[in-house]
Amino acid sequence: MKSLLRTAIAAACFIFLFSFISGCWLQPENVLGTLERETPQGTIIGQLHTHNGYECQRYLGIPYAKAPVGDLRFKPPQDPAPFKNGKREAFDYGPMCPQLVYGVLLSGDEDCLFLNVWAPRDAKPGDRYPVMFFMHGGGNNLGSGNQALSDFLGMAEEAVALDGLNYFFDRLKKITTLDEPIYQGNYLAARHNVILVTINYRLGQLGHLAHPDLGEGSGNFTFLDMVKALQWVNRSIANFGGDRDNVTIFGESSGAWDVCALMNMPAAKGLFHKAIMESQACLSRTIEQAEDYASPYIRASGCSDAADVGACLRKADINYFVTAMSYLYGLYWRSFGFIPHIPAVDGTVFPKHFAEAITTDQFNHVPLIIGNNQNELAVAIASDIGFNCPLDANLAIFARHLRAPMYQYRFVHHPLNDMIPVIHMFELPYVFGATRDLFGGTLKREIAVENVVSSYWTSFARTGDPNSGDQIYWPPYDRASQRYLKLKATPEEDAGDIIYYQNNCVLCDPLLNAVMGEQIVFW
Fold first, then answer.
1. Are 47 and 36 in contact (CB under 8 A)?
2. C-alpha distances out from residue 329 to 321, 325, 376, 522, Å
C-alpha cells in the first residue's frame, strides 16, 4: 500500500514538474513572454518575440471578419464575432485562403480572413506609431500574409525560368531558412519603430466570381475583404500603440494592383493616408468582363440553370472554384488575353476606372511611392509589356492628376553578385529585413541595401516623405524631368536611362491594345 502511495506521489510530482518545465522553461527560445491587448471582439493574448535579435510584440491569426463560408460565401465580409470566453490566443498564423499549391494541390481553408500585427517592444495603448498595412502578391490567386521563403523562391524562380538561373536558386535553397515567413515584422517593428499589419484575403474566383445573382460585391469580394481589414485597423490599432490616422498601405505585384484599387474605392476613404506600389500598375475590368470570365466556373458547378444561382454557388463544392482555376487562369494569362483577378468596375464598389476616377474627389489622393525592379521577367519585351509600359502610363496620369507628392524608384541591386538579374519580387527581402534568413547569414552588402530600402519605406510611412536626415535625397517625381531614384547600397538619382523602355512602349502599345484592349483597362 505504501509502495503504491509513493508511486502515485512520485508520478504526480513528475507530472507537475514536467508541466512547469514545459510551460515555463521549455517555451520556444524566441518567445520572451506574453501580453494582452483589447479589441472590440475581446482580449487578444500576444507574445513578446525575438527573431534575428529583433524583439517586438507579435499577434498572429486575428480574425477581422466572420468566416466567408456557407451563406457568407460570395458575400461582402461581415464583422467578426466576439471571442469565445472573451479571450483569444494569437500565437499562430491563421490558415491561408484556398489556392492551388504547385498548380495541383488544393491547400488552405475558406475560414481564412485573418491578420497579423507586429508592434515595437515597448508599444502600449495610446502611443502613435505609424502603421504599415501590407497586401501580398501572387496574382490575387496565390499567397498569404505569412508566405514562407520557400514559396517566395519558387515564385521568383518561375519568373526567370528562361534565364538558366537554376544554380542560383539551388544555392539559395541550401542556405535559406525555408519555413520562415518573408513578411515577418520583427525587423520593421524593432529597427524602425513602425507597426506592421499583414492580411489574408479571398483569392481566385472565391474572391472575384461575378454573377448578377450574387448581389452586393459581385466580382470584388477580395477588395471588400481589404477594406474590412482596414476598418479593423481603424477601430483597434490604437490599443496596440498604432496611429489610426497614419496608415500606409503597400503591396507588391498584385498587391500593388490592390493598393491602387483601394485608392479607387470610395469605401476605403479615410482608412489610409499613404500608399506604396511595388512592381505593378493600376488595372481594372468591367463587371461584364468579370461575369464572362466567371461563366465556365459556374457551368462546371452545375449552377448555371439554377433558380437561384447565388444560393447554388454558395453550396457548391469548393473544387469547382479552385481546382479548375489553374487551367483557366493559366490559359488566359499565358496568351496575354486577360488578367482575371483585378477590380471589376460595377458602378458601386468601383464607380469608375482608375484614369477616370483620379480626376474626381472620389479618388483617394494620398502621397505615393511607385516603381519596378530592373529586370522583373526573364524576357525584356515581356517586362516592358507586363510592367514597364503600364507603369509609365500610370506615372503620366498620376503626374497630371494626383493631388499629393509622388516618388518613383527603380530597384537595381543584384543580390549576392552582379551576375544575378534584379527580378520580380527581389526587393521584398530588403523591405522586410529578411536577408539574413534568405542568404543564410549576415552579408554586409545585402544588409546595406536592406537598411537603405527599409529606411526609405518607413520614413515615408512616418511623414509622407521618404527622405530623412541621413538618406540620399529622393526627389519627387514630375513628368517634365522624370527624376527617380535607383535603389541600391548607395542610391543614385537618375532620369535618363529609363527612356529605353519608353521607346519600347511606343512599339508595345499596338500589341497591348490588340491582345488586351477589349478585356482590360490599364490606364
1. no
2. 11, 6, 20, 19
Q: Letter for the amino acid at 13?
A: C
Contact 367, 405 (CB under 8 A): yes
Tens of pLDDT along 86-134? 999 999 999 999 998 766 678 899 999 999 999 999 999 999 999 999 9
302 in the Ramachandran plot: left (φ > 0), alpha (ψ -120 to 50) or beta?
left
- Dist. CA 271–CA 361, nearest whole Å: 15
Grid cell digits, residue 390 = 503600364
Q: Residue 328 contacts by C-beta under 8 Å, 6 or more apart in sequence? A: 296, 297, 340
Q: Which is catalytic among the residues 144, 218, 236, 253?
A: 253
C-alpha cell belonging to residue 132? 504599415
Q: Spell out the SS3 assignment of 120-187.
A: ECCCCCCCCEEEEEEECCCCCCCCCCCCEHHHHHHHHHHHCHHHCCHHHHHHHHHHCCCCCECCCCHH
Looking only at the bridges linking them, the beta strands covering 242-252 and 285-286 are unpaired
| Cell representation of residue 193 | 519603430
pTM: 0.91
Sequence-ordered list of residues with C-beta below 8 angstroms from that of 119, at least 6 positions apart, any chain: 56, 57, 59, 129, 189, 195, 240, 241, 242
Distance linking the first and last C-alpha atoms of the chain: 86
| Identity of residue 498 | I
The C-alpha cell of 114 is what? 485573418
**Per-residue pLDDT at 304 exceeds 50:** yes
Overall average pLDDT of the 200-216 stretch: 96
Phi, psi of 259 (to 5 degrees): -60, -50
Closest among 400, 423, 401 to 412, alpha carbons compared: 423
For residues 249 and 264, is the Cβ–Cβ distance under 8 A?
no
Average pLDDT over residues 266-284: 96
Q: Are 66 and 77 in contact (CB under 8 A)?
A: yes
Query: Which one-letter DSSP state was computed for residue 475?
Result: P
Residue 66: pLDDT band with limits 50, 70, 90: very high
Contact 413, 456 (CB under 8 A): no
Pairing of strands 129-135, 42-51: unpaired
Cell of 472: 540620399
**Does 253 participate in catalysis according to the annotation?**
yes
The type of residue at 235 is R
Q: How far apart are CA 225 and CA 208, in angstroms?
A: 11
